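pasting for the record
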Amino acid sequence: MTAAHQSLFIFFVVLSLAACNMPAGPFGVTPVATRTALPEAEASATPSPLPPSATPSPEWEEWLPGFELRIMAMWIEGLNAPVDVTVVRIDPEQFAFRVHYSPMNPGEVSNWQQRLGALLVVNGGFFQTNNQPRGLIFADGQRFGTSFDHHGGMLTVSGDTVSIRSLAQFPYQPEEYFEQAVQCSPMILYPGGFPNQFDDVAADLSRRTAVAQDTQGRIVFVVVDEGVASLYLLRDWMVKQADLDLFVAFNLDGGYSTGLELKVEERSLSIESRAKVPIVIAVYPR
């Protein structure tokens, strides 16, 4: 662990203990936004216990230094069997994150990867039938859409700093500017790893994509390809995986939009989106 990561870990410990009284934002950066109390419906919940995985999770596989892949298992009670969960963990000190938006030329994630030549492409946030974003995005400094109002999460990139924040706690302010950003909803884990409560729609079964940040500041993408995971199940699974050490997480677009394309030299992994998406998050070597 680098000195920067050690300092970051200490900060997370303090943040988790301070919880709602902390004046600064995630990763020691004070946002321009004003912190507000969490809505009662979004207060932390006690995670439901899950059965142990049928098979042990394999170890992390390093594709590049600071770029790791792990295929884990999520137990599905109705199937009485596990399904695969693809987890990619990336050190933002070694890799750059960009948001790409093309309402006139959407594509499957494999098509996006071919266009961009990125190491990793994953689907982004919600979008409307005319491919306009639901929520706010910044793509290479250009702003599109309208911010969610006191709900959902936001991944932001400013210089070398990549962070995730809760918009219920730190609402977006119009004067804020980011090089890259994407919003989506709902939050899955509030800062400190506290699980969110959801409304009834979270019980729907679907393919899932989520983005998280661990206590060392690494960005973690989580994808469930099979359409059998509810947000409740995904949340409880993420809480249960103590070795992932997740600090904060929010949901990205799922269902037909879920997709992840990974290509590093001669190695590749493809979870194809079943729809053309206009918004993606891409990762590049620095």
